[in-house]
Amino acid sequence: MYEYGCRRGKNLCKYLTSKFVRYLHKQAKASQDASSKTYKFIPLQNFTHNSDIDWTKPIANMDEQLFDKYNLSEEEREHIKKFNKRYGDLEMIRDVIVKLIVALISYLVVIIFHNRLRIKKYGCNLF
Q1: Residues 75, 80, 81, 83, Cα dihedral to 10°
Q2: Which pLDDT tens digit goes with each residue over 21-41?
Q3: 3-class DSSP state for residue 35?
Q4: What pTM value is reported for the model?
């Protein structure tokens, strides 16, 4: 029984890392949060050995099985593949870091500007 549940868990992990699921998940995300609402477009699957998806195959092959199952056109398939290339894990991390750096610099500029105005207005030295 444990081995059966473990296999289903591994199949679920593979499913969640597929391009198909990552694309659908991204469609519902407005921020970095991943609440239950962000999974609303992702269809449930049968993760047992009786599934119509062969979970023993590599993820790339599994994506093709999912594309076939949901009758995606060649154009839709290519769009999902390109989207996931653009927003791969490393690129997403890079984008987040760049946004954080820009936000930090903007914050520091505001603080410096605010302190300069304060010094001019009240003649106080903060250092």
Answers
A1: 120
A2: 989 988 887 776 677 788 889
A3: coil
A4: 0.63
